[in-house]
Amino acid sequence: MERINLHDKEFRIFIPFSKIEEGIKAVAQKLNRDYKGKGAPLFLAVLNGSFMFAADLLKHIDFQCEISFIKLSSYSGTSTTGEIKELLGITTPVKGRDVIVLEDIVDTGNTIVELHKILQDKEAASVKICTLLLKPESYHKDLPVDYTAIEIPNDFIVGYGLDYDELGRQYKDIYVLDTPNS
Ligand code: IMP
Ligand code: MG
């Protein structure tokens, strides 16, 4: 599909699944190298947006690992509210564990900074951030983003888990908001 309509907005194809898969395989390779022989780390995927990324990434992970989920939310419509809500807490013990946070996208970074704090409070042994997408123009935090599959400009995107007001998560490809001047 070249174009999709969600609510009042139109989106056009931006990143085809083949390119997403390429980025995911490259990140999995780095993780496989870095976590080889280090026990079983815990992947902590941030719902809802990272469900597809988590599913596809883990198929390429060759070390022993666990996965759990946390639900956080900061977005309303097409912009961030700055306030992070914990909608579903961590149910797995993280004390003394190596944790790899899985995010769909890092934009302002408010979400990962908040989550990093939560995990430090819970005394995780280490916390690394792994994201499918990063908006470098928007990210100005000190916290390093350890693994990034794809960098994108500061545009609003949907698909492959990402939504516009809860619609559009099911698409295999990623779409960008089609503004008249772009
Ligand atoms: P941050 O806290 O500003 O880094 O935003 C992170 C969260 O906002 C992500 O996990 C997404 O759920 C959401 N988000 C950021 N940018 C976009 C976008 O372009 N499309 C859809 N959701 C986004
Ligand atoms: Mg998210």
Give a summary of the structure in a few sentences:
This protein is an alpha/beta fold and 182 residues long. It has helices spanning 17-34, 51-58, 110-121; strands at residues 3-6, 9-15, 42-47, 66-76, 79-88, 98-106, 126-134, 147-151, 157-158, 174-177. It has a single domain, classed as Rossmann fold.
Q: What pattern of helices and strands is seen along the backbone?
A: EEHEHEEEHEEEE
Strand order of the largest sheet: 5-4-3-6-7-8
Helix content: 10-25%
Q: What is the fold named in CATH at topology level? A: Rossmann fold
Over the alpha carbons, how many angstroms does the gyration radius reach?
A: 16 Å
How many individual domains?
1
Summarize this structure as a short list of keywords or feature phrases.
binds inosinic acid; 182 residues; four-stranded antiparallel β-sheet; binds magnesium ion; alpha/beta; 21% helix; 3 helices; six-stranded mixed β-sheet; Rossmann fold
Task: Describe the protein's architecture and organization.
By secondary structure, this protein is an alpha/beta fold. It has one domain (18-153): Rossmann fold (3-Layer(aba) Sandwich), CATH 3.40.50.2020. Helix content is 21%, strand content 37%. The chain has 3 helices and 10 strands; from the N terminus they run ββαβαβββαββββ. The protein has a 6-stranded mixed β-sheet, with helices on both faces. It has a 4-stranded antiparallel β-sheet with strand order 1-2-10-9. β3 (42-47), α2 and β4 (66-76) form a beta-alpha-beta unit. α1 packs across α2. The chain starts with a strand and ends in a 5-residue tail after the last strand. The model has no long low-confidence stretch (mean pLDDT 93). Magnesium ion binds next to loops.
